[in-house]
Write a structure and sequence with these properties.
The protein is an alpha/beta fold. It folds into four domains: about 120 residues, no CATH class; about 60 residues, no CATH class; about 60 residues, no CATH class; about 190 residues, Uracil-DNA Glycosylase, subunit E. It is built from 16 helices and 14 strands. The chain has a five-stranded mixed beta sheet. The longest helix has 23 residues. Bound molecules: uracil. Uracil binds next to α12.
Length: about 475
């Protein structure tokens, strides 16, 4: 007899968890369950309530995290797939570390789709004001068409960001409402007639201002802001005109620019010409082009260029720093300035061939304040690190390193989500959701700032040990 499990559109994550726990504790095999959601037509099978259980089921944290995302995917087979993997986990506890397993690979793809959809939702929902701005609590509504059922898991983000107003996000499947500080969900609706408001003009002006005609990469732009979202974004109407006028604006900018570059640029570029070429392979070009065109945060406005990672696209070890420094910003390559030189020395002592690792940064643009002729490094903010995590995640997905070393607090924050200083955490190994170990260590610039030679020597030795450990993890040598 087949048990039919119908998952609700609202509260799906908890419902799937309860149902899966009940079924597995009652020893119901995956082939005896038929999963669907409220949109799935009922079949001819028996419909039974899920077996009830209070028994605790222990599963790896990583699976819980995958399931928490995958339940919101729009593929009707997601619940059955999750249950099959859960069932297999009972006898194969190490299943999650099997990178070749096709069912796991499919789950990970679905997880990535859902994360991407949540990310697009955070970036592209556009609220329109209802009522009057003088009302004690202003109220807004937005229409959005996500590719997956991501309204419920993404609503807490909007509640945090727009906690001082009432809002509704209406989608075809679910509506999220935030009224007087409380989130509630109800059925989806068709597109309501929403009024235009002043913020539309604001979005368009903002977009015109951040649009850099010298960096127009239409393909990269469309991959970052897919066309299907344009119809609900007021600023999108400006895009065709901005693209069409870009060449003329670049010509005008060139004519207005000073004819001689600063002497320092020439000197740095001469030095850099002597550095060996970076190694790239695989799908690197597309990723590099996308990173170069990045305008996700205002840092791109002042930096010379985005500095993407470099190294083999199948490198077993990934090295993540904070952000390009002054020299890297001019060179367009990571870790080629003073901190990079010190890091090269430590690599040599640790017997790590840097050219066989993938070297990148948590933030891809140089953040600085000008002081006279100098550009003084500024630490990136949490928001900038968050914005740029998109690219670090893309690099991780492309390279799939076996181990990562995070140099300094910004890299550690991007990779682990924890922004605490590195002092207490150095030497620890953090496991990412996909099981990749991240060794936390000092940033070489920190060593450069230590005046006391003994302290510098000690810190440099610790960084060497951490690098050795990360290298061994990447080689699958147990440490
Ligand atoms: N510091 C970093 O974190 N990264 C670089 O690329 C250079 C200096």
């Amino acid at each position: 007899m087949t048990i039919r499990m119908t998952m609700p559109m609202i509260g799906t994550a908890q419902a799937w968890r309860d149902a899966a726990r009940g079924l597995i504790n009652a020893n119901v095999a995956p082939c005896d369950v038929s999963w669907g959601d409220e949109t799935t037509p009922a079949g001819l099978w028996d419909s039974l309530p899920p077996p009830r259980t209070d028994k605790v089921l222990t599963v790896p944290k990583e699976f819980i995290s995958i399931a928490r995302s995958v339940v919101w995917h729009s593929d009707p087979s997601r619940f059955a797939l999750l249950y099959r993997v859960l069932w297999r986990l009972r006898d194969t506890p190490h299943l999650l570390s099997d990178r070749a397993d096709p069912e796991l690979a499919q789950l990970r793809r679905m997880e990535k789709n859902v994360h991407r959809c949540q990310h697009k939702m955070k970036a592209f929902v556009r609220f329109r004001e209802l009522g009057s701005p003088e009302d004690p609590r202003r109220s807004f509504a937005a229409w959005f068409e996500p590719s997956h059922f991501t309204v419920e898991p993404t609503a807490p983000f909007f509640a945090r960001r727009f906690g001082d107003m009432d809002w509704r996000i209406i989608t075809p499947s679910v509506t999220a409402s935030f009224v007087d500080g409380k989130i509630a969900f109800s059925a989806g609706q068709s597109k309501p007639p929403l009024p235009e408001d002043a913020s539309e003009q604001l979005w368009t002006t903002y977009f015109r201002n951040i649009f850099n005609p010298a960096r127009v990469k239409v393909k990269a732009m469309q991959s970052e802001m897919p066309k299907k979202y344009w119809k609900n974004m007021p600023e999108a109407a400006a895009i065709p005109d901005l693209i069409a006028s870009a060449p003329a604006r670049v010509r005008a900018m060139n004519e207005a620019a000073p004819t001689l570059p600063p002497l320092r640029v020439e000197k740095v570029q001469q030095q850099l010409a002597r550095l060996p070429e970076s190694v790239w392979s695989g799908d690197a070009d597309a990723l590099r082009a996308e990173i170069s065109a990045c305008t996700r945060c205002p840092l791109h406005c002042h930096a010379t260029q985005a500095v993407h990672g470099e190294g083999p696209m199948d490198a077993p070890l990934m090295i993540v720093g904070e952000q390009p420094g002054d020299t890297e910003d001019l060179a367009g390559r990571p870790f080629v300035g003073p901190a990079g030189k010190l890091f090269d020395e430590i690599c040599a002592k640790a017997d790590v061939d840097r050219s066989r690792a993938y070297v990148t940064n948590a933030v891809k643009h140089f953040k600085f304040i000008p002081r006279g002729k100098r550009r003084i490094h500024q630490q990136p903010s949490t928001t900038e690190i968050e914005q740029c995590k998109w690219w670090l995640d893309a690099e991780r997905t492309a390279v799939q390193p076996r181990a990562i070393i995070a140099l300094g607090a910004s890299a550690a924050q991007s990779l682990t989500g924890n922004g605490e200083g590195i002092g207490k955490r150095r030497g620890k190994v953090h496991l990412l959701d996909d099981g990749t170990p991240v060794v936390l260590s000092f940033h070489p610039s920190y060593l450069l700032r230590l005046r006391d030679p003994v302290a510098r020597q000690e810190a440099s030795e610790l960084l060497r040990l951490d690098l050795t450990r990360a290298h061994q993890l990447a080689q699958n040598i147990s440490v």
